[in-house]
Amino acid sequence: MYYHYWYYKRQGVQSIAFPRPVIGTQFLFMKSCMKLDQYSRFPHIEYWHEHFGPKLPKIFLDFRSPCGAIIVSCPKMVNELYVTKNKYFDRHYREKQVGELVIGDSILFQKSSIQWAEKRKHISTVFYKERLQMILNTITEMCLKQVQSWKQTFANRRDISMDINKEILDMLMDETQVCVFGMEYLYKKFTYLENGSLVEISVGEAVRRIFRTALRRLYGPIRELFEFCDHFYLTDWEKELKTNVTNFRVFLLGIVNERREAMLKPEFVNNGDFVTLLLTLDLFKNDDKMILDECVGFMIASTNATSLLISNTIYYLTQFKAQGHLNQIRGEFKKVFKRDNFQDLTADDWKGLLNFDNFADMPYLSNCINETLRIDSPPISFGIELTEPIDLLGYKILNDHPVIININALHYNDEEWQEPNEYIPQRFDPQSKYFLTPAGKKRHPISFTPFLGGKRVCLGKTFAEHITRYQLAIILSQLDFEFTDQHLYDKKPKNHAGSGQPVYSAYITLQN
Ligand code: HEM
Question: What sections of 155-287 are H helices per DSSP?
Fold first, then answer.
């Protein structure tokens, strides 16, 4: 710890504080966590800013864990990591080590290797145009059905309101589950152990709860300080997690085997789901563990981030309705889809309207989605591991501790973004004055990096962009949201990946 402290101090790299033996600066982090409320940013972001103030140094040291981590908040340095130094850039091993039981060797946490690259190449075929279209058709049908159900339950009523966050997440969980396993398993229940009791939940909900508990295990102070604990399940809730994960994988294996048998039958119809795809690929078809790892990885990578993006976009459009963003988006729908009313469209009508190309003519919708991704990026920071020591724009960085890319700082950098705390979709419009930095220059491209970059760039980026646009088109063309609580207009309770989700309660009216 002290070697790292002095090694970096000599290069002018500041540390959060002088670390204490064994506990480093963990005590400062815990102290900072006690001040968090519903409007706070992610705990470690608040803790960094508490120490350094509103503007973080472009590179600094944090000793929440004994070996310390280097935090990088400068677009030029991150660009260097994505491009010139990308061959030394890898996923940090700790997440895989802690999450091994849950996610195994899924490409999501696996270190870069020939096998990882091979798997990534094969899995990316799921997002080829025709296959992607099949998945998007399924999502279109499910989203429309959900909107119809919301209309029946909530529309034009003041005695009942809809929690945007919960409803979107439930919908996304069902959709992802269907994309992975097919429609026939949507209502299949898994028996989950919670606080000593057994509860019946959907596959999507099981993945969500397992992922959330696994994150809690990963980011707790015990594992920040004592790495050897990664291999043990210590508390009652950790032991429950282990039981749930073991049972869940047996349960999923049953689904995979059923599908394998079904595919042998002449009447089998391929609906384009992920399990069926993996069972047709030579690399995967005879390896159950590999199939399970990727199915769980797909669900974890896809559900939370996309659901946060959709519900946060609806939130901002409702919060800032007076600024006319929603009107502009609806104007684009009317122009591109060539109709004024969307209430009675069938799933087939929507499938005819929604296609890859026509969203190019809806720049305002894309700008709003990007602005949500900037201001509320689902990944707030990302820990990488260097495979060799590197020179990062003059700083000599060692490879025996994590390097954390501070996405939050890049997205709020006031040298790159005008009024960074404001929701201004026009900053993605090349014609707008907000497209430029406060100094009137072109913005550094790495100032916006919600999907990461380099060889570990999000594999589902295009998929995520499409499902978000498709579903926002179906929802926003038909429904209008009005918050039940004035406070929600004043200030947005933060909605982070991995934390408990706030209630975004709204009345629904039909849009005409
Ligand atoms: C708004 C939505 C999304 C955002 C912001 C996002 C962001 C990211 C980021 C930052 C990474 C790199 C870090 C990491 O591995 O965690 C990543 C990786 C990944 N994402 Fe996404 N993602 C989104 C949606 C999706 C979707 C819908 C899928 C679909 C399956 C997906 C699949 C993946 C996979 C497989 C990886 C691992 C790639 C690798 O390391 O080889 N993501 N995503």
Answer: 164-181, 203-219, 221-225, 236-262, 274-280
**pLDDT digit string, tens, across residues 230-250:** 888 888 999 999 999 999 999
What pLDDT is stored for residue 216 in this prediction?
A: 81
Report the atom number in ligand 1 closest to the C-alpha of 377.
Answer: 5
Contacts by 113-121, CB closer than 8 A, 24 or more apart:
118/283, 119/283, 119/290, 119/294, 120/459
From ligand 1's centre to the CA of 377, what distance in Å?
Answer: 12
CA of 301 to the centre of ligand 1 (A): 5
CATH number for 73-510: choose from 3.30.450.20, 3.30.479.20, 3.40.50.300, 1.10.630.10.
1.10.630.10
Q: What is the pLDDT of residues 57-97, one digit of tens each?
A: 999 999 998 889 999 999 999 999 999 999 999 988 877 77
Confidence of residue 471 (pLDDT cuts 50, 70, 90): very high
pTM: 0.94
* Res 499: pLDDT: 64
Could you tell me the distance, in angstroms and rounded to a whole number, from the CA of residue 312 to the centre of ligand 1? 18
Q: What is the pLDDT of residue 498?
A: 59
Q: What angle do CA 139, 145, 149 make, to 5 degrees?
A: 140
What would the two tokens of residue 345 be?
């469209």
Q: Which of 458, 459, 463 to mutate to test the pocket of ligand 1 (most atoms within 8 A of CB)?
A: 458
Q: How many angstroms does the Cα of residue 450 sit away from the middle of ligand 1?
A: 9
Task: Decide: 464 in ligand 1 pocket, CB within 6 A.
Answer: yes
pLDDT, average across residues 484-510: 90
**What count of other Cβ atoms lies within 10 Å of the Cβ of residue 318?**
19
Ligand 1 centroid distance, CA of 203 (Å)? 20
Which residue has its alpha carbon closest to ligand 1 atom 11?
458
Cα 457 to ligand 1 centroid, rounded to whole Å = 7
Q: Could you read off the pLDDT of 20-47 as tens digits, one per residue?
A: 988 889 889 999 999 999 999 999 999 9
Q: Which atom of ligand 1 is nearest to the CA of 378?
A: 5
Tokens of 422: 């404001």
Atom of ligand 1 nearest to the CA of 379: 10
Residue spans per domain, the chain: 73-510
In this structure, which residue's CA is closest to atom 17 in ligand 1? 458
- Give how far Cα 108 sits from Cα of 204, 289, 301, 456, Å: 18, 15, 7, 9
Contact indicator for 291, 342 with CB cutoff of 8 Å: no
Residue type, 25: T
Nearest CA to ligand 1 atom 7: 451
Is 103 a pocket residue for ligand 1 (Cβ < 6 Å)? no
Percentage of residues in the chain with pLDDT exceeding 70? 100
Angle made by CA atoms 233, 239, 243, in degrees to the nearest 5: 120
User: Annotation-wise, does 368 bind a ligand?
Assistant: no
- pLDDT averaged over every residue in the chain: 93
Both tokens assigned to 171: 């919908």
